[in-house]
Design a protein that fits this description.
alpha+beta, Double Stranded RNA Binding Domain, 5-stranded mixed beta sheet, about 35% helix
């Protein structure tokens, strides 16, 4: 018997007022994270809490099926956060979530 367990991604962004407008805002961050996790074919409940520390620094706390994963940090040293920065961060988060499912660190 195959059980199709779909993933549920919960995303919250705190401090969104610090984001440069070119990032697309908090909705764009959550959409990028959700899309990247789905692209990794993760079939788990995932919770992500992103803190915008400044216009150059993001921190994400992640849980997969209730298990706390290592905190992800991303900082830009050559300017402000951009849409490409957000995409890169989303893929790093998705990679960490997928690796946790394989029992490996990435």
């Amino acid at each position: 018997m195959n059980i199709d367990r779909s993933s549920a991604v919960s995303c919250v962004v705190e401090g969104g007022e610090k984001l440069p407008s070119e990032t697309g805002g908090t909705a764009a961050i959550c959409a990028a994270i959700g899309g990247a996790i789905k692209a990794e074919s993760v079939n788990s409940d995932v919770r992500v809490r992103v803190q915008v520390k400044s216009n150059t620094w993001l921190v994400a706390e992640i849980e997969r099926d209730g298990k706390v994963l290592p905190t992800q940090n991303m900082a830009v040293s050559d300017g402000k956060l951009r849409k490409s920065s957000i995409e890169h961060f989303a893929h790093a988060i998705a990679g960490a979530v997928a690796a946790a499912g394989r029992g490996t660190n990435r």
